[in-house]
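Review box. Two proteins, two foldings.
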Amino acid sequence: MIELLVFDVDGCLTDGSITYSENGDEIKSFNVKDGLAISTWIRMGKKAAIITGRRSKIVERRAKELGINFLFQGVHNKDEVLDNIRKELGISYANIAAIGDDLNDSKMLSSVGKSFTPADGSHYIKDICNTVLSAHGGQGAVREMIESIVKDNGTEEEFIKIWK
């Protein structure tokens, strides 16, 4: 059973676009449907992590809004960070699902029990993932991932009842 979800940001939680204002502010857009699914997962007592190669106060804010348990930014070795989280939680890789879209996610995706990539993920990543989602990054891919996992975990009713 999956207990921990791990998310890459750019290209998974977002569409991969990075916009800069004239003042140099970075702008990212997140999908509200992805966010609802993540917060519901956490309300079910499950864990979630963001492991991303970039640093952004926007990502920190989004993680806090959603109640994400673990946030690691500026990471070059995602599988090492994931191993530390796994050890802290006392779970096996079989109990972890992750989503990533590009080469810097490949080691992490290869080590987890269930790996996902958005429809617009790199073909190199599509070749190693268990599931290529029909949605693109930032456009409901994370929601699709979570709905698949709660079905596989047999916790779909619990997921739905959170909001009833």
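Next protein.
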Amino acid sequence: MKSLSLVVPARNSCHFIKPFLRGYYKVFSEKFFPFELIVVCNGCTDNTKDICSSLTSEFPLKVMDIPKKGKGRALVAGFNIARNEILGFLDADNPFNLDEVKKMIDLLESYDVVIASKYKKGRARSQDSQFRRLISLGGAVVSLTLFNLRLTDTQAGAKFFRRRVWDSIDRDFICHNFDFDIEFLYKVGKKGFSIREFYIPFQYRKFSTVSLRYLPGMLKRLLMLRLLK
């Protein structure tokens, strides 16, 4: 059995996170040993941290709390303390079938990084909102135009990789929010690591924190990253 550290970024997730964390632990602890589950509460203004901490009496769970908002900040904090051979993250609202996620992780036998894709040519569209489709399409276009990343979906909330990938890349990230995914993949590609997309149908959740107000900042940071490139 291979070891896995799963990081879950959580921003004001108190109303829904508990059953998803239970599901993550149940499914992945059966396949991976040791299995480490790390929740990073970032800039929460509700009792997400208390809800997560209450689960530590049920199963092993690390709960971090960082003051600044941003999915990217949460992931960097979580990966920096992760101890196992395989590292990865899933969103706090778990939009994917975990049996399919396990199949995706198995591809790390042949690839350095495996990322979920909600879209696949010839398949019906997944159950996604129009706005999230726009975000995914925009991410793919920006990734190709600015960084030559030929991927169909850079924004899906499921990515897994070998420890050597995290140990090898520059961890001084410019992109601290949902644009983190693009910068991470760009840095991975620069190092010559192999990336494989894996199609998993997406189930839309009403809990998404993606908002139009994030887009100007995301674009600004990605342009800064491109200029530094």
